[in-house]
Each structure stands twice: as structure tokens, then as C-alpha cells.
Design a protein that fits this description.
The structure is a single chain. The chain is of the alpha/beta class. Helix content is about 30%, strand content about 25%. The chain contains 12 helices and 18 strands. A 9-stranded mixed sheet has the order 11-10-9-8-14-6-15-18-17. Strands 2-1-3-4-5 form a 5-stranded mixed sheet, sandwiched between helices. Strand 3, helix 3 and strand 4 form a beta-alpha-beta unit. Helix 3 runs parallel beside helix 4. The longest helix is centred in the N-terminal third of the chain and has 15 residues. The two termini are about 30 Å apart.
Length: about 375
């Protein structure tokens, strides 16, 4: 199927609209819709919040009678089943659209081509494939959840130019500048969970909440803590109670340190146990547990051992690495990564999608698989 430049322009507009739902619609995908008659947009919309009207219905409500005979540019296959809302295919058919253009089928088991078949059965022309790479990139967390049962993992760290995340005395606040920290708060505001190791809690006493930004989701703070060393007085527990805290450990350790567990619970935290990997909580097991909860995005903020373990297991989907133009030096300064690392350059990880840009005083390397 050949699409025109104008077709691409309208689909890119729909994708731009769809992204506005990021952080509000999960675990549903982000979807945008543009309705066009001739060369004129008569209605547009997007999925604004989980459980709310879908993009097609939002656009149709704005177009009203002008939708009859229009072409619908929808960034993902319209649903053809009853869920929290009625089928979008029914709304499109009843509105009298003549053509639908979508990038790809929705791989969700309740959709999977059903919506496209319903539109075609109603005599609507359906064309598939426009802007497919861009549409799939937009909803990578949704597609990963369907494929693996695990959430999309974003790893974030700030380092000096020589790869240090703290000095030899453990001083790390602040390696990155204000611009980078503002961006991290925006990241926290759209994920389901923020994950750190207990070492980060002991060294930095962070709150890990989204501040000075519009909060779309309230992320649960997860602390990987085998021996329950998290202090009950940690700043994590002083944050607003609507931002939950879970201490992730293994069952045998929770039983052995039951007094510590009770103190952490009394401080407002929960204890979550997952199967062990050696003496520590299994990170794949934790991600599968979060996937069962319907969580689609998690942000990993360290420390070095956790980030390295996830990278070594190919469980990281995206990286936000902030590089400060400073040199810390020292053999005993804290490195950004732990473990053995790659034995040869040929086995070192290479990321195919790289974006580099200035963020305040720092450089951001954004890497995606």
C-alpha cells in the first residue's frame, strides 16, 4: 500500500496527540485519532486517561456530523470489544467514516485483527502500515508487556566524565545539574515504580518522589534489600503516604529478620518477597511480579550492582545516562557499574538507537534497544 505525504502528515499528528496520554492511560496503549475530510481536519482526539473515552470516541465527539465520509487516522487498531468502554469500531461505523488508516494491528488478545475485520465487514476501507515504526516505538512498554509479561525498564544514572557516580568518600550530591534533576522528576511522574538498592538508600537517603512537576502517576518506591537494612527513619517514609514504599527481599531473610520487618511495616512500608537468585532477590522474578500487577513502566535509579545485573541479563529497554563535564578520578571512587563486565569489545553491549543532547550543564545519552 502506498501512502501520500498528506497521509503521513495526518498520522504523525495523531501520534503527537497520542503521546499526551503518557503516564495517564497505562496499562492501556497510547492512542491518537485524527478525522479528515478532503484536506481538512474535522476532529481529533486521544486517549486521555485509563478507563476514559478512547481516542476515536474523543475525536468523533469533536467532529460530530462532519465525521460522515471522513478518513480516520488511528495510531493503533481500533478495539472491537466491550471493555471499560464500548467498542470503538461501533462508534466509527455509526459515524459513517469511509476509510481507516492504522499503522498496525493491536497484538492484544482481545483485539488482534478483530477491529479491522469489523470495519471491513461494514464496508469501510482499511489500510494498514503507515508510520508503523513510529507507532510501535511509541507503545513499546505495551508491546513488551504483551510479549514478555514484564514491564518496560528504564535505567537512569548520573556520572562524571570518567565514569564515576560518587567520590571515594561516597559523595554523589550532586553530580548532575538542576536540568537533569528536573528531567528525572518528570520521569518519576510517569512510571509505576522507582527501583533502587538499599545501598543507595543508606548512602543518599533519597525520597524518590516526583517533585516540582505535574504528577501523572504515583510511583511505588521499591528498595531491594536482602537483609532489611533500610532504616525505619529513612526519608522514603517521610514522603506523602500516597507514594507507597515496598522493601523487596527473599522469604528466608524476611523470616530471619522479622523484627526489622515489623519496624519497617510500622514506618509505613510493605515487605515483598520474591524467589532468590543466590542470596539476593531475583530481578527477573521481581519484574514478572510487577507485570502481573499490570505495571508497564519502571525506573531503575541504582545502585551500580542492580543496574549492572539488569544490563547483563538484557533486561534494560532504555537508558538515561547523564554525563557531567567534571572529572572525579581515584581508583576507589564509585564506578557507574559493578560486576565483571564484558571480557572483550566484541561482546560489549551496543545500543542501536542513540540520542545525545544537552540538558542544562550536562549531556544526556538516551539509549534504546
Amino acid at each position: 500500500m502506498t501512502f501520500s505525504k498528506l497521509d503521513r502528515q495526518f498520522m504523525l499528528r495523531a501520534l503527537t496527540l497520542a503521546k499526551r496520554g503518557q503516564g495517564y492511560v497505562e496499562p492501556n496503549p497510547m492512542v491518537g485519532c485524527v478525522l479528515v475530510r478532503g484536506r481538512r481536519i474535522v476532529g481529533e482526539g486521544y486517549h486521555r486517561r485509563f478507563g476514559g473515552p478512547h481516542a476515536e470516541v474523543d475525536a468523533l465527539s469533536r467532529a460530530q456530523a462532519s465525521a460522515r465520509g471522513a478518513t480516520a487516522y488511528v495510531t493503533l487498531e481500533p478495539c472491537g470489544h466491550f471493555g471499560k468502554t464500548p467498542p470503538c469500531t461501533r462508534a466509527l461505523i455509526e459515524a459513517g467514516i469511509r476509510r481507516a488508516i492504522v499503522p498496525a494491528e493491536d497484538p492484544g488478545p482481545l483485539v488482534a485483527g478483530r477491529g479491522l475485520r469489523q470495519l471491513r465487514s461494514a464496508g469501510i476501507r482499511v489500510d494498514v502500515g503507515l508510520c508503523q515504526p513510529e507507532a510501535e516505538q511509541l507503545n513499546r512498554p505495551y508491546f513488551k508487556m504483551l510479549r514478555t509479561g514484564m514491564p518496560y525498564v528504564i535505567a537512569k544514572w548520573a556520572q562524571s566524565l570518567d565514569g564515576k557516580i560518587a567520590t571515594r568518600r561516597g559523595d554523589s550530591q550532586w553530580i548532575s545539574g538542576e536540568g537533569a534533576r528536573r528531567l528525572v522528576h518528570r520521569l518519576r511522574a510517569r512510571v509505576d515504580a522507582v527501583i533502587v538498592g538499599v545501598g543507595t538508600v543508606l548512602a543518599d537517603d533519597p525520597r524518590l518522589t516526583a517533585r516540582n512537576t505535574k504528577v501523572r502517576r504515583v510511583a511505588t518506591r521499591l528498595v531491594l534489600d536482602t537483609h532489611l537494612r533500610t532504616p525505619p527513619t529513612a526519608s522514603l517514609f517521610a514522603a506523602p503516604l500516597r507514594a507507597p514504599v515496598e522493601i523487596v527481599t527473599i522469604r528466608s531473610s524476611a523470616q530471619r529478620h522479622s523484627l526489622r520487618a515489623r519496624r519497617l511495616i510500622a514506618s509505613g512500608g510493605d515487605i515483598t518477597t520474591v524467589r532468590p537468585a543466590g542470596s539476593r532477590p531475583s530481578l527477573p522474578a521481581l519484574l514478572r511480579l510487577l507485570g502481573k500487577r499490570g505495571w508497564t513502566n519502571v525506573l531503575v535509579e541504582g545502585g551500580a550492582a542492580i543496574t549492572s545485573t539488569l544490563l547483563d541479563a538484557n533486561l534494560v529497554d532504555e537508558v538515561f545516562a547523564f554525563v557531567s563535564p567534571r572529572l572525579i578520578g581515584g581508583l576507589h571512587a564509585v564506578q557507574a557499574f559493578a560486576g565483571l563486565g564484558s571480557a572483550t569489545l566484541s561482546t560489549a553491549q551496543v545500543w542501536p538507537n542513540v540520542e545525545v543532547r544537552r540538558v542544562g550543564s550536562d549531556w544526556l545519552f538516551r539509549l534504546r534497544t
